[in-house]
Design goal:
This protein is mostly beta strands and 224 residues long. The protein has 4 domains: 60 residues, no CATH class; 63 residues, Hormone Receptor, Insulin-like Growth Factor Receptor 1, Chain A domain 2 (Ribbon), CATH 2.10.220; 47 residues, Hormone Receptor, Insulin-like Growth Factor Receptor 1, Chain A domain 2 (Ribbon), CATH 2.10.220.10; 49 residues, no CATH class. Helices cover 0% and strands 38% of the residues. The protein is built from no helices and 23 strands. The protein has a 3-stranded antiparallel β-sheet with strand order 21-22-23, with no helix packed on it. The protein is elongated and about 95 Å long.
């Protein structure tokens, strides 16, 4: 017998009897000894070579390694990587909790013009709900701001809230003399200020798909 069926192996050194023995339960295929796997029973498991040279099937690679296309774990190129992309060149996470991830490298601080987000990844901008402070760090906006220029200087609001443009704050209702307006392009709505160029010198008309949809009223126009 030159080759054993899946789930069995020929012992090494090969005995004269050439009897196929069963692999361990985790191995779909094995070589030389029962627990030296070359393929795994469980889909998604990877091959990890231990210090004794025996390869086992594990749920994931050890820290500092990645699974190649053959599902074998190999060391990342950078020793500071906790994990890395296939090929080993680019880190996906860092071993040291104080490190930041910048363009596939683990660094102590972000380069100029990049900001660390809450996941300790350096980005050229702050994520939604955060702003860049004077020290170059991303800080959370005050609720219910969705985007902001500073802690309480809102640019847009979370769903269900409206922006008061003169105060740059978000409110749950517009209040007396103000009209809620969404600038979503899907509804085809437009606001028109008629009879003046300043907030209280004229009135507002609401158009939907080119047609007048609401009465003309004297209001302070609020657009965001």
């Amino acid at each position: 017998m030159d080759q054993c069926p899946d789930g069995s192996y020929l012992p090494v050194p090969t005995s004269q009897s050439r009897v196929c023995l069963p692999c361990s339960s985790a191995c779909f295929r094995c070589f030389g000894v029962a627990d030296n796997c070359t393929d795994c029973v469980t889909s998604g498991h990877v091959l990890v070579t231990n210090g004794n040279g025996v390869t086992s099937c594990e749920p994931g690679c050890p820290i500092g390694q990645y699974a190649g296309v053959d599902k074998r774990c190999a060391a990342c190129d950078d020793s500071r990587c906790a994990g890395c992309a296939v090929g080993g060149q680019y880190c996906s996470a860092c071993i040291e909790q104080s490190d930041l991830l910048e363009m596939g490298r683990c660094v102590r601080s972000c380069s100029v013009g990049l900001y660390p987000n809450r996941y300790r990844t350096c980005l050229p901008f702050c994520p939604d709900g955060e702003y860049s402070d004077f020290s170059g760090l991303c800080r959370p906006c005050s609720a219910p701001c969705q985007h902001c220029l500073s802690f309480d200087l809102c640019v847009t609001c979370q769903p269900g809230h409206y922006l008061l443009t003169n105060q740059r704050s978000c409110v749950s209702s517009c209040g007396r003399g103000l009209v809620p307006y969404s600038s979503s392009p899907s509804n085809g709505a437009d606001m028109r200020l008629v009879g003046g160029l300043v907030s209280l010198d004229g009135y507002v008309q609401l158009y939907t798909r080119g047609k007048l949809a609401c009465c003309s009223i004297n209001v302070l126009l609020v657009i965001f």
